[in-house]
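Its record is quoted verbatim for completeness.
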Amino acid sequence: MLWVIGIALILTGVPVYVILPAYAILFAAAIPFVRVRTATLWVWAVAVALIVPWLLPPIEAAPFWDTAPGEAVFLLTGWAYPAPLWLAFLLAGMAVGRLDLARAGVLWVTAGAGLVTAAVAETLAVVVPAPDGYLGQVWRASGHSGGILEVWGSGGFAIAIIALCVLLCRTILRAVVLPIRTLGAMPLTAYSAQIVVWAVWALIALGTTSDLFGFRALNPFWPMTLGIIAACFAWALLLGRGPLERLVDTVSRPRADRLAR
């Protein structure tokens, strides 16, 4: 269902690398890891983060990607977020989710470990610049580059942010950030809605959904951001669970219950 929703969003023509097809592949790939021990999840996450960056450069340099079938595969698999590499993020996230996040000490240690990992990666990027050629591609730290330093830097930072957000929501600010929490409670709906809103707005204002710079000239950031937050907040207060989250649950739960029995 994630894959189908992702393809529907791609068909809007909005110039965004839709991540949902990659999520669909990643969630399927994660099934064998659901029952493994937490320590094993960490080992696998580390192994993927260390090994896959060495494999990506020759794969992404293949002439296949410049062909029409290659472009189709790129979109249909969400290869802008290559699943073999992003599996490291998913496994690390599963491991973090198994921690005792009700304990402040665990959260502080998790945040500290994430920040130290990110800081070390970013420091290495400055102290040991990426060389030219293949080794440079493996070592690079730039965003979405798939290099070792980028994977460890962004992964560590993400883990720290998760822990710090949970800590924040243990304080009186929990009520203050309620609108953002409702947004985070329906990420599939929010992600899909922003692309649909983009498509409709661009089609009305520009006559096309594919003009990236024309749409940016409309200054859509704040209207879309505040609008999506407000819409999710209102939906959560009035109707509860997000519509796409509810749809996926309704379709998948009977199958999951049969498998559990």
Q: What stands out?
A: The mean pLDDT is 93. The longest helix spans residues 104-127. The chain is about 75% helix and 0% strand.
